[in-house]
Amino acid sequence: MDCLERLLGKLPPVLPSLKDQIEEYLLTPEELPIHDPIFSRRWFPRKPDPTRLYDISLLPPSTCLEVERDPATGEITGLREVPNKDAGATAKNSLSMRRAPGPPEETVRGSSTNFPFWPGGFPEPVLDKESVEAEFQLDSNNYLSHHPKLSRGMIFEVPKQLPEKEEKPTEKAPELVVSITDMLQVDESVLKIFDEKEEKVVKKELILTFENLNEEDTSLVKNFNIEPPPKKDEFVLNISDASRSSTIVVKNTEWAENIDVNEPVDDFNSQVPNPACKYPFELDTFQKQAILHLEKHDCVFVAAHTSAGKTVVAEYAIALTLKHMTRAAYTSPIKALSNQKYRDFKVKFDDVGLLTGDIQINPKASCLIMTTEILQSMLYNGSDLIRDLEWVIFDEVHYINNAERGHVWEEVLIMLPSTVNIVLLSATVPNTIEFADWIGRIKKRKIYVISTSKRPVPLEHFLYTGTGGKSKDERFLLVDANGRFINKGYNDAVAAKNEKKKGHTLQGPKQGRQHMGEKQEKNMWIGLIDHLSKRDLLPIVAFTLSKKRCDSNATQLMSQDLTTKREKGEIFSFIKKCTDRLQGTDKELPQVIYMRSLLQKGIGIHHSGILPILKEVVEMLFAKGLVKLLFATETFAMGVNMPARCVIFDSIRKHDGKAFRDLVPSEYIQMAGRAGRRGLDSTGTVIILCKNEVPELSELHHMMLGKPTKLESQFKLTYSMILNILRVESISVEDMMKRSFSEVLKMANESKYEAELKQAEERLGKEPEFECMMCKDIEKYYACAKEYERQRRYVYENVLGFPGVMKTMTPGRIVIICFNQYQFRLACLLKIDVKDRNKLTVLILKDGKESSSLTKEQLRLKEAVAASQVDFDILENTSEHASLEMTPQHLAAITNKVIKVNGEKVIDNIKKRQIPRFRDDPPSPSVMGVINELQRLNESGGENLSYLDLVNDCGVRDLAAVTEIDILKNLKLRVMEQSCLECTQFREHFGITFVKLSLQEEIGRLKFLMSEEALQLHPEYQMRIQVLKKLGYIENNNTVTLKGRVACEMGNHELMVTELVLENVFADSPVEIIAALLSSMVFQQKHCSDPNLTPELQKGIKQFQSVASHIGEVQKACGLPEAVGDFVEQFNFGLTEVVYEWAHGMPFNKIMELTDVQEGITVKCIQRLDETFKDVKNAAHLIGDPNLREKMEAASTAIKRDIVFTPSLYTQ
Fold first, then answer.
1. What is the strand order of the sheet 840-846 is part of?
2. Which stretches of 244-293 are assigned E, i.e. beta strand?
3. pLDDT for the residue 229
4. CA–CA separation, 341 vs 311, rounded Å?
5. Cα separation values, 221 from 70, 205, 209, 244, 543, Å
6. Which of 201, 791, 862, 1004 sees the fewest Cβ atoms within 10 Å?
7. What is the C-alpha separation between 341 and 974, in angstroms, rounded?
8. Alpha-carbon span 143 to 137, nearest angstrom
9. Which DSSP string corresponds to 767-780?
10. pTM > 0.85
11. What is the C-alpha separation between 644 and 627, in angstroms, rounded?
């Protein structure tokens, strides 16, 4: 063996030694192939090729071909060439539907640099040919002859003409001078070629109209309902042609039509022979009527109670999109409802997608479920997906009343293109026609309103006064299934409650408390559950309008068991299947363990403090009938149909963020509507718990049978909306404001204002002219008199409250009044109302010949003339008298004369003689005494009568009041010093001038009402524009700057986040600090424990507050009412420590020990924080800050883990 080894050892090696190879590789790197000269940079000589500069990209074609069809048969008869108006149009320069598509990555969400599509109902922009032609007319005086850095350039002088005698037709000029102006001049005769072609095209179009068809062809078209061919500017897929043709019919009529739901639709199957969607049950009448209009591409507004079947209408619209191979968008107010609808529609329609802030599932689907904010963003960002939309379905439209988010619905409805049809689903509201008329008016389309107040399962409302034990069955019917209020039930409930009070009188500090003790409440719930269980009224939804009370009520009933062994097994396996998705310690979170044990007993909790995955578990178990008693807050009543057999109201009072108040009818109806399962229950049971006191009868009646809350505008101006609109020159913010629901009255009156304006202008043109040397300042007199009248009313309305004036104004005081046709008349004060001192009763003398029916214009003329009077009117005939009730503003002066009078007797006698039976009776002596005194003063012309001075004689000493009185005196002097008063024909001339000036004022008023300045939000808009200019978001000409474009990327708090980004606040901060500080943008809970902050976090918070203070101060300086402190305090740093540790990697169960904020709210905050990271990341990309972009990506990665970002059960 040794010999063999020695022999082999001397043989040459088959392969090189591995050891040698490694040594060579490590010790001689210069011999590596990468250092070979062939890989080094080499120089390639280039040959100049100037001709390549001549290559230019081809412009898009200016014309395109359209198919010509026979209008009767639809057969293609030929082609026609039409001009392409949108040649070169892209998402960056055009709002047209025919613009070129954008890049694929912007198809769904769009881009903040895109233009939106042209909103439906907006007037199409008209091309001003004169201004366009003027732009192309070159002015040689303004040419630049050479570049500033060059000494020579191009000569634009007109070439000198050579003398005729030297011109030779066969010889060329010695010098050829080319003039650019000559080159740019175009022979007009050449352009006529295109005019002739255009005329031919127009003539071809006219061939396809119905006007040129004979009678036989016209009747054939009408019989077959063949639509006319599209216009040349409508060769895009237009899914609402039918409704657009109907727009012409309803142009000058109401924009909303109410459909009678009581009228049966007997021929439904013949009208819809091939329905897009079939149902295994007979449709209700309102559903059939809605479907008929959907088939006609009409917009519908369906208002019905909860569980009435509104979803059928939405499903049919979605089915139509599948049939037409278009798209539908289903919008909901909250993300959780979007997830639930995704699951429901996914079962019925396979092609369904979901778009929310953090989830994007199948965005190419025909039906997309999304929140309304997502659709708003897509509209502003010009998403190409909007092109394909045939239907947009707005669920829970009554959410437009939400003060914080209601404006989003209005913005979306305004911005929707005309090619989109609208389906509105809402709970019953009293002003459906008004709301539908507004939508129809802004979209120029008729809206069909289908409203039904009929419930599929009628409700019975009860009062429960039991406290457990023997009283557990004390349930009293208050409203029966027919909606009749039963007073006996209320009286019996009050009697039962009073009977208990006799034996259980609360003493000491317990008196007057709002809730029972824990033991009493537990006994009450146990007795009530037993009572309802024996009557087979489970499952129950107990609406408890407080998260804390939801938890405490459920905890008190842990001893109760409402499920069978089989149900317990189902619940256990379902919860295990769901929680297996969680990782590590998340499976053993205290809330998970608590909810698991609670649900196995058939009891559930549903409110915002519960983890999202646990809320979904509760909802699914409740839908399966495994949760028998559910304690829920108001949000459970919104959206998805999850009815119960019985609904209980733990209390009918709620805190709305400002104060405690009773539930309004719409809130009560929404929650009570969960009672009664269609097809299972004959009636639904609603119970109100009377724990301490029975609510007032009037409150219950209003809440149960009162009218629901009207839909009201919550439109408001946000910086985001302003900046998004200012990006687009063709649309203005004023256009948005004037189309808001709050301006519906102004919009409805526009035609009326136009007619009145035209009429006033015509009248003004017909008014006669006059020339008078004395009346040159008559217009100035009119202005002074008008100002004097206004000041007189203001002064006398306010001085009556001073003691000296009140002391002077005693019954019998002679005063001068200006009241309607009685201008500057003597009057005797009879009475000042004790309860309301603004009610005065006076007696005046009347001239029997004077007219008592003057027009408003005539009365104003008399007031203006009376302004120049110093002495009261002296009457020739004083045979009549009257008593007047007026206010202090009708006083013109207080005199020094007081007569003895019994005002009450005078008033009683005058009222008595107004009765027909006593009309001919003579005045009483007390009345005659006043009349005689007034007649004497009238005849003497006010002898020994003087006017009291309000300051010197009546003792008015208040500085502000004295100032106003001085202004009144000065105005009187200004009126009296006008030279026109000396004209002998003053009254005649002033009458003519008054009419003209009044018409001018009316024309100005009407023009103002029709202008943008009359909009309610116009002053605030101007203030916000000033804020944006001062902060540098827009230029002085309202052009959006780069800073403004960054703000357009933000979902909320756009100014604050933009300032932080551009001031480089995040530059030196680690990812965890940034995440913690940005949590202040999304955390909204007002009260929570104080976080334990590190020095870095404290420094960051000060920076945030400094930036917020600066913005608040600018807003205040520009006139906005929001206080600086309120603006700063809206950024809540209560979860800063929690988010900081979460971004550091701390487990969820540990971070929940750092705060008293509930788990569900914490998870929601962190989820929304990720959306803020995306906004900041997009902004960083826009400004070119890769460092910040990387930080945002790292921050998003740090927080997106474990239970916080567990996918929804509805999407799996």
1. 880-886, 840-846, 822-832, 813-819, 891-898
2. 256-258
3. 40
4. 10
5. 10, 17, 11, 19, 59
6. 1004
7. 73
8. 12
9. SPP---STTTTHHH
10. no
11. 10
Place of tokens 């005046």: 844
Whole-Å CA distances, 769 to 511, 779, 1004, 1198: 82, 14, 20, 82
Show Cβ contacts of residue 998 under 8 Å, excluding neighbours closer than 6 positions: 857, 860
C-alpha 272/C-alpha 1125 separation (Å) is 61
Measured in whole angstroms, how far is the alpha carbon of residue 547 from the centre of its chain? Answer: 29
The residue among 268, 271, 295 whose CA lies nearest residue 283 is 268
CB 628 within 8 A of CB 650: no
User: CB–CB of 817/902 below 8 Å?
Assistant: no
Q: Are 814 and 826 in contact (CB under 8 A)?
A: yes
| The pLDDT value given to residue 1143 | 94
Sign of CA dihedral 108, 109, 111, 112: positive
Query: Mapping DSSP to helix (H, G, I), strand (E, B) and coil, where does residue 207 land?
Result: helix
Integer CA distances (angstroms), 672 to 427, 628, 647, in order: 12, 17, 6
Cβ-based neighbour number of residue 29 at 10 Å: 10
> What is the residue whose two structure tokens read 């479920």?
369
Cβ contact 321:277 at 8 Å: no
Structural tokens at position 809: 């104004």
Q: Which amino acid is at 989?
A: H
C-alpha distances in angstroms, 37 versus 24, 30, 32, 40, 235? 20, 11, 11, 5, 62
Nearest to 316 by CA among 332, 328, 334, 301: 328
Q: What tokens were used for 881?
A: 């008298």
Structure tokens at 1126: 């309120």
In angstroms, the CA 1209 to CA 940 distance is: 96
Beta bridge partners of 685: 460, 646
> Does residue 827 contact residue 817 with C-beta atoms inside 8 Å?
yes
Enter the DSSP assignment of 1154: G
CB 828 within 8 Å of CB 843: yes
- Residue 228 has φ and ψ, to the nearest 5°, of -65, 155
Which residue stretches of the chain have pLDDT < 50? 1, 4, 7-8, 165-213, 216-252, 505-514
Q: How many CA atoms lie within 13 A of 1199 on its CB side?
A: 32
What's the pLDDT score for residue 39?
A: 59
* Residue where the block lists tokens 């309202």: 1038
Q: Are 461 and 686 in contact (CB under 8 A)?
A: yes
Q: Is the dihedral of CA 330, 332, 334, 337 positive or negative?
A: negative
pLDDT of residue 296: 93
Whole-angstrom distance, CA of residue 1162 vs CA of residue 1199 = 12
Find the DSSP H helices in 941-1070.
959-976, 986-1010, 1018-1031, 1042-1048, 1054-1062
Residue from 1142, 1123, 1019 nearest 1072 by CA:
1142
d(CA 308, CA 314): 13
The closest of 626, 504, 512 to 572, measured between CA atoms, is: 626
* N-to-C CA span, the chain: 70
Over its C-alpha atoms, the chain yields an Rg (Å, rounded) of: 41
Question: Which amino acid is present at 1155?
Answer: T
Strand, helix or coil for residue 653: strand
Neighbours of 1182 (CB within 10 A): 17
CA distance 208 to 163: 60
State whether residue 1139 is helix, strand or coil.
helix
d(CA 412, CA 396): 14
Q: What is the pLDDT of residue 177?
A: 44
Q: How many CB atoms lie within 10 A of CB 702?
A: 16
Distant-in-sequence, close-in-space partners of 281: CB < 8 Å, separation ≥ 6: none
Q: What residues have CB less than 8 Å from 861, skipping those under 6 apart? A: 990, 991, 994
Within 8 A by CB and 6+ apart from 879, the residues are 848
